[in-house]
Specification:
Blueprint lengths: L2 H22 L4 H19 L8 H27 L2 H23 L6 H20 L10 H27 L3 H23 L4 H6 L1 H22 L4 H8 L2 H11 L7 H19 L1
Helix pairs in contact: 1-9, 1-11, 2-3, 2-7, 2-9, 3-6, 3-7, 4-5, 4-6, 4-10, 5-10, 5-12, 6-7, 7-9
C-alpha cells in the first residue's frame, strides 16, 4: 500500500468518524440515517450531468450494492435499538474487514501478505475488544440480540465492500459508479421511510441542512475508500478504514466529553498496532 493510499484511507476514516458523531447526537436514529440517505441521494443526483454514464455491466453491481447499503442501514438501526451505540458500532464494523478479506481471498483470489494479515487480524481484535469490554457500562453487558443484529450488519458491510470494490474496478469511472449507487440508495431509503412514517417528510425537509453536512462527509469518506480499493487490496483497505474507531474515540473524549475507560484505551492501542503492521507491509 503506497503512502498516498494509506493517507487517503486514514482521512476517509476521519470523515466517517465525524459524520457518525453527528448522527450520535441525534436522538431518533432512524430519522437521522434516513435524512442522511436522502441527502446523499440528492447530492449524488446533482453530480450526474458531469460524470460519464455507467456501462451495462456496472448497473448490476450498482443495483446489488444499493440493496446492500439499504439493508445495512436498516440492520444498523435495529442493532442500535437493542444495544449501546459505543459497543454495537465497533462490533458491526470490526467483523467486516475480516469477512471482506476472506471473501476477497475466496472469490477474487486476492492474497494478503503475512504482515497485512497480521494487521487485519490485530485491528479486528482491537475493535472487538472495544465493542465487548469498552463500553461505559458493565463489562459483558451487551445484549445477545444486539450482538446478533451487529454481526448481521457486518455481513451487509462486507457484502457492499466486495461488491463496490469489484464494481468500481470494472467501471468506466469510479466516481460515476459511486454517484449512481447513492442515487439508488437514496431512493430506496426514502421509500422505506415513506412506508414507516408517511407524514414525516416535512420534518425531514427542515433537517436537510444537517443531512447535507453529514452526507458530504459520508460521500467523501466512501468515495475515498472505494478509490483506494482500486489501488490496494480490499481487505487491507477495509481494515485500515475501520481506524475510524480511533478517531471516534478521540472525538467522543475531546468534543463530547465522554470518559475513556482503560479497556477502550487498551483496545485503541491494539488497533494502532494493527495499523503499524499494515504500514510495515
Amino acid at each position: 500500500m503506497s503512502n498516498a493510499v494509506f493517507a487517503v484511507v486514514l482521512f476517509s476514516a476521519l470523515l466517517h468518524a465525524g459524520w457518525n458523531a453527528l448522527i450520535k447526537e441525534r436522538g431518533d436514529r432512524f430519522f437521522s440515517i434516513s435524512t442522511l440517505g436522502v441527502a446523499q441521494g440528492l447530492i449524488a443526483l446533482a453530480t450526474l450531468p458531469f460524470l460519464p454514464a455507467p456501462t451495462g455491466a456496472s448497473w448490476a453491481w450498482i443495483a446489488a450494492s444499493a440493496m446492500l447499503h439499504t439493508g445495512y442501514k436498516l440492520f444498523l438501526i435495529r442493532a442500535y435499538s437493542a444495544g449501546d451505540l459505543g459497543q454495537v458500532y465497533p462490533l458491526a464494523r470490526g467483523a467486516a474487514p475480516l469477512l471482506s478479506s476472506l471473501v476477497a481471498l475466496i472469490l477474487l483470489h486476492e492474497r494478503l501478505g503475512p504482515y497485512l494479515w497480521a494487521g487485519v487480524l490485530t485491528v479486528c481484535a482491537g475493535i472487538a475488544l472495544m465493542a465487548l469490554r469498552g463500553g461505559n457500562g458493565a463489562a459483558g453487558s451487551l445484549d445477545r440480540k444486539a450482538v446478533l443484529w451487529a454481526l448481521a450488519t457486518s455481513v451487509f458491510i462486507s457484502g457492499y465492500t466486495i461488491v463496490d470494490a469489484t464494481g468500481a474496478r470494472g467501471a468506466v469511472s469510479p466516481s460515476s459508479y459511486i454517484a449512481w449507487l447513492f442515487v439508488f440508495d437514496g431512493f430506496a431509503i426514502a421509500a422505506v421511510y415513506a412506508l414507516v412514517r408517511r407524514k414525516g417528510f416535512r420534518v425531514m425537509a427542515a433537517e436537510l441542512p444537517f443531512g447535507f453536512l453529514a452526507a458530504l462527509m459520508s460521500l467523501g469518506a466512501y468515495w475515498l475508500v472505494i478509490w483506494a480499493m482500486t489501488k490496494a487490496p480490499i481487505g487491507a483497505v477495509a481494515a485500515l478504514r475501520e481506524t475510524s474507531i480511533l478517531f471516534a474515540l478521540a472525538i467522543s473524549v475531546i468534543f463530547l466529553r465522554e470518559r475513556a475507560s482503560l479497556w477502550r484505551i487498551a483496545a485503541a492501542a491494539i488497533i494502532l498496532a494493527g495499523v503499524v503492521l499494515m504500514r510495515i507491509a
